[in-house]
Amino acid sequence: MAGYRDLLRTPGVGRIIAAQLTARFPNGMTSLAILLHIEHVTGSYGAAGLVLAATSIGQAVAGPVTSRWMGRWGMRRVLTSTLVVCALAITAIALIELPVPGYMALGLLAGLATPPVQSAVRTIYPKMVTSRQLTPLFSLDASLQEIIWIVAPVLITLVATQAGTVPGLLLIVAILVGGGAWFILSPEVGRVRIPRSRRGLGKVLAKPPVLLATVVGFLLIGACAAVEAGVVATFDHGGLEAGIVLAVFSVGSLAGGLTLGHIPIGPWAMARRLAIVTVGLTLTIVSLNIWWLGGTLVLAGIGIAPALAVLFAMTSASVKFSDTAEAFGWVGTGQLIGAAAGSAIAGFLIDDIGPTGAYVAAASFAVVGLIVAIVFVRGFPDLRNRDASPIPDTEPVQTIL
């Protein structure tokens, strides 16, 4: 913990972490708020699912594209324009009564315009800290983002059920605008300029570490999404027990990230972390007892944030600085698709064999991820004797003072 205290004393680090977490806080609220609102307006969960699917497709498509735009037009310009469009689209969903295709179009627009805060901040990090501090910073970031998934769903559910779905969506807009403005106005966002990439869109996936990070992220988040579906199905559509168990899952991830974040990252680091996740998720199949699930999910959670930290570090260390934002965009897209796939597969298995099916799906995603990490271990960089900073571009990078 002393290392994290030293890290947070670095000028600007604590502020930029707080700003980006606030700007990304709506990510943990929007899907649930849209689901509740569209179901309330139309009386159909099927219609709500269509709107959510459109939103997710928009986010998946936008990730690498808007991230790449930051190298062309600058971070502040891209972040500001996407923030305005996203806020307007969510406001329209809240205030305008439309047929389902209209809500789908707005959901798609909101997804396409989701501000690429995650790609931006992980591109900025290497310019803020020493090479020795970068891997712990990625670990701290991966750990603290669990706060979003612990607090945000509970907050939006409380607001939507007590005050209404319209106030819930407008609350998201307020946090999106306030947190986004805080992040955009942070000095670091204006100080760091991403060089324009000379490679075509998608060429960065030819880098084995980036492709592996995208695939493993898909499988890891797919497992987490299946767990969420299973917990909700186990405890009667998201009662108090479901919230507690999911919170415990996130707390395990938070603890794992803070505890293991200082360990150097070698080629086998991902396999070791995924082994923890796999063992924990496999044990969930044994029993649906709340105490058993809580304990096994704490164990599984211990490996999640450390695995994400490896993903971020290997991505950063494997590409030129001009390609980092796009690379993180692809990794984020892989995670979004994984979340959709995990939820869908878990849903079908829940209908077929009950809640246990979701945990089978989660364990299967984790097992495949572990196999990928073992079979393709040579594709994972060895960062034990080097830092996770991006490869320098051959041309000078201007810094705005």
- Specify the overall morphology: globular
What's the overall average pLDDT, rounded?
84
Compressed to H and E, one letter per element, the order equals HHHHHHHHHHHHHHHHHH
Kindly estimate the percentage of residues that lie in beta strands according to DSSP.
under 5%
Assign a percent range to the helix content: over 70%
Task: Report the oligomer.
Answer: single chain
Give the radius of gyration. Answer: 20 Å
Number of helices: 18
Distance between the termini: 32 Å
> How many strands, what sense, and barrel or not for the largest sheet?
none
**Low-confidence runs:** none
User: How would you classify the helix and strand content by structural class?
Assistant: mainly alpha
Please give the number of β-strands: 0
Architecture overview:
The protein contains 18 helices and no strands. It has helices at residues 2-9, 13-24, 30-42, 45-73, 75-95, 100-112, 117-124, 131-144, 146-162, 165-184, 187-191, 208-234, 240-260, 269-283, 290-302, 304-318, 324-353, 356-375. Helix 4 runs antiparallel to helix 17 (324-353), helix 12 (208-234) runs parallel beside helix 17 (324-353) and helix 12 runs antiparallel to helix 18 (356-375). The longest helix has 30 residues, at 324-353. It is globular.
